[in-house]
Amino acid sequence: MTNTLRTHGLGISFGAFRAVNDVNLTLEPGARQALIGPNGAGKTTLINLLTGVFMPTRGTIHMGDRELTSLSAHKRARMGLARTFQINTLFPSLTPLLSVVLAISEREGLGAVWWRPLTRNKALFDEAHTLLGRLKLDALADVPVAELAYGKQRLLEIALAMAARPRILLLDEPAAGVPEDESGELFEAIAELPQDISILFIEHDMKLVFRFSKRISVLVAGQILTEGTPAEIGVDPRVREVYLGHAGASHV
Ligand SMILES: Nc1ncnc2c1ncn2[C@@H]1O[C@H](COP(=O)(O)OP(=O)(O)OP(=O)(O)O)[C@@H](O)[C@H]1O
Known about the structure:
A six-stranded mixed sheet has the order 7-8-9-4-10-11, sandwiched between helices. Strands 1, 2, 3, 5 and 6 form a five-stranded antiparallel sheet that branches. The protein has helices at residues 43-51, 73-78, 96-108, 118-134, 150-162, 180-191, 206-212, 230-234, 237-243; strands spanning 5-14, 17-23, 26-27, 32-36, 58-63, 66-67, 81-84, 168-172, 198-202, 215-220, 223-228. The chain has two domains: 1-80 and 166-252, Rossmann fold (3-Layer(aba) Sandwich); 89-164, no CATH class. It is an alpha/beta fold. Adenosine-5'-triphosphate (ATP) binds at residues 14, 19, 37, 39-45. This is ABC transporter ATP-binding protein. Keywords: ATP-binding, Cell membrane, Membrane, Nucleotide-binding, Transport.
């Protein structure tokens, strides 16, 4: 199975409202792809469709040659699809180290007995330290989550998603709420994740989008308006028109 994630004619309606409509999206192996579009365009809904939070009204989703369309969120996660949310979902009183250890235990199906036996325990902690190091959180491994700067908390959320050993990582506004001077650092850590992981991220800050994506998909009113490299999207008059007057669009 390859890491290619592909949708065909994907759509969902809420009552008569087509929140996502006829979306053909491809996420190639190793992608660093941004999903942009105005507020309410359907970006989070599309990620919810990809991860199985919502079942589509129309269309299909494939990972390689496996069809995911009607699989549960849990099964998709088991197949290597991981995500983060727009809103912080961390346990404030846990440390980053224990949070990641628990996430790895979950992947391993160890549940509540994660702390036994000791040999296994060491492997879990070693892996957690490696993961925290990758996201430059190792120095903060034992600091309660509630005391971490918000940007560090968001990095921890990515570490937790990475603990599932994903093939595909879907990041819903990873820099939301993060002060501007920390968001570049956060995206640098994302950029340095292993290249074989395909990443799709929603981001409103066009400076970050143009700096860190290799492809951009533009969603407007539930439909893909266009898709291309940052250079192509940056000169596309339709995209400029959509963003005219929208905050943060000066880069488009
Ligand atoms: N469960 C739901 N029931 C009804 N309408 C919904 C539901 N989820 C989303 N919507 C609607 O679908 C549309 C798309 O919402 P969505 O959150 O996907 O947009 P978005 O592009 O992620 O916006 P933002 O950039 O503001 O986060 C919105 O009009 C929203 O109100």
